[in-house]
């Protein structure tokens, strides 16, 4: 093989190797870090056409409304527990730390955490939106069909 | 009546922009000099009308005209006057008007400062800018006017500005960011004009470079201030969240950084021309994509703005026209572009090419992580989110070769190099960096993980290599003072930019590795210890501000029983929105920040508090400011001014 071709072959191989490893790494990192979103009913009854349920220990995101009266704070530590609802079953969220400023009962929130029991999530992050009219769009979509059952407290939902 | 005048001024501005888009481009096409000569006056005219309209919005906000929907929704009579001004860009409609102000001001600036350009090019640049202006003005007038009225039933009091936006950082963050975004439209216009003219030579790069530099510097500053704002205001001490809105500003920045380096090669060596043009197109397209992401609400974000599908659709169509049109033009013209220079593998050209590759890969990663959830959802596969670790891992991997290269590249010469004399220098630098990092970290911390050590070495390596190169270049001259004089401002800009990046890398590494936080429940008199500091809780005080009331937790910070400072961590309740806001108390320092956030009241007079100790976190913003200074320093470079004068005489 003449030196010029050899050089070209080397370059091409280097490029292929570079792209390959970049794509591989990216896919691997992606696979590790995709968190599926569930609503409380999807978590309990299963999600999608096959009604897939998350497994214990899985990292996931959940969005719903904080059930009024369900927030229980520990007297001595910063542990807090509350229940989330969308259209049906309740799911318990446990969290340690200070909740965001806009966390209120009856408000839509999104929590990220690990499933520790079929309907209990240990959250490491609880998000409430800055905007008082906010409802996470995922939650808004999930409760779309139940407008006639609008609870007594003001949800500020878009209807 | 006054708001209607503001609207009408915008209509006139759009009419002038439309003429600015048509006349010069048509003139350049047919060779009609009279049409081309109309461009600068049209550019100035539309700018005046937009500024007038913006002035009116500020006026009606300051005078509390709540018959105007925008003012009623984003301001209130109790808001301090400076936040009233801020509120003119705190909401969607006003933000877009601010965008227009920037867009038309840049256009006017180009019109004023481009006298040395040949008329055909000047007319085309201004024409393209006029087209972009029309796109945004039509959007404002059609679906996002800030002058809409709430008649006949208007509120007597406004809904107040979102408390989170009532912060000094928020006063300057959006204008700076928009200066950057819109500034990139100038680079874009130069690229399109050059493609239309069919002359992509180094003169084009020379003209485009200072504009790109300034836009990039503003973008850098805007992102830096945004990060600082998030840190100070969100109350949990985070400085970057990989939120879609943040990613939207990071992507154009990454591409613009690549563009700067590529422009340097094109100007000096006449190669990479078509690639540089593509980057200029990509940088501005990503700005538009960012706007689409932020404004359409298609992506769920913790801080996405009010959502409206129609608006999203408009921006998407505009994006399609701009990207599609420019790429089609690019495809049609790029085959005529030929590179002149030749270079070997060990050369500065290749080093800068690699720099571009890394920056583009980084952009693609951010793009993938930002758009994938959206695509996933549109395909009906359910909604997902991409976790922060994805971005962190990918950037942690990418930064290693990037930083190594960054230390080497400035020492390389154009065309070709013999590597062996340089290799010796690099080995010395590597050894020095290892020793210095070890001395630094092991003297400060008991435990140093391998990853932390490596990342810190990278930062130190960049600084040492930059200094070594500086000394080498100075020593070539007869005396040291002569050497420093001869370096030129472009060189100093590079030094600033690279050292700034080193500060950012060091800060990100050390803050991530050594930040500690504690959430505690404290009664008055309790003492909590975190690292070498003791925090004594002295109870809470009632506070009352112009438009809020609340509590301030008083905390005395001690170090070995010595008084350091007294901090007031506030919890505010804003009167109008009835929103709670944590106003963190920060004791800032060059080496560490002490950061306190007040939580909720618990039983028996106890309060929950969150205490953070964040080492070196300030270096991040210091680095960002240094990097942006690089862009402004280049402006003062005589090379650009002298050239302008010379060409003006011809």
Automatic annotation (TrEMBL), chain A:
A GO cellular-component term linked to this record: plasma membrane
Keywords: Cell inner membrane, Cell membrane, Cytochrome c-type biogenesis, Heme, Iron, Membrane, Metal-binding, Signal-anchor, Transmembrane, Transmembrane helix
Biological-process GO terms, alphabetical: cytochrome complex assembly; protein-heme linkage
The keyword Cell membrane is annotated on this UniProt entry: yes
Main location: membrane
Pfam family, one: CcmE
Superkingdom of the source species: Bacteria
Membrane-side (Cytoplasmic) residue stretches: 1-8
Protein residues bound to heme: 130, 134
SUPFAM superfamilies named in the record: Heme chaperone CcmE
Localisation: Cell inner membrane; Cell membrane
Membrane protein topology class: Single-pass type II membrane protein
Residues exposed to the Extracellular side: 30-159
GO molecular function: heme binding; metal ion binding
Family: Belongs to the CcmE/CycJ family.
UniProt function note: Heme chaperone required for the biogenesis of c-type cytochromes. Transiently binds heme delivered by CcmC and transfers the heme to apo-cytochromes in a process facilitated by CcmF and CcmH.
Entry-linked NCBIfam families: PRK13165.1, PRK13254.1-1, PRK13254.1-3
Protein name (Swiss-Prot/TrEMBL): Cytochrome c-type biogenesis protein CcmE
Top-level taxonomy: Bacteria, Pseudomonadati, Pseudomonadota, Gammaproteobacteria, Alteromonadales
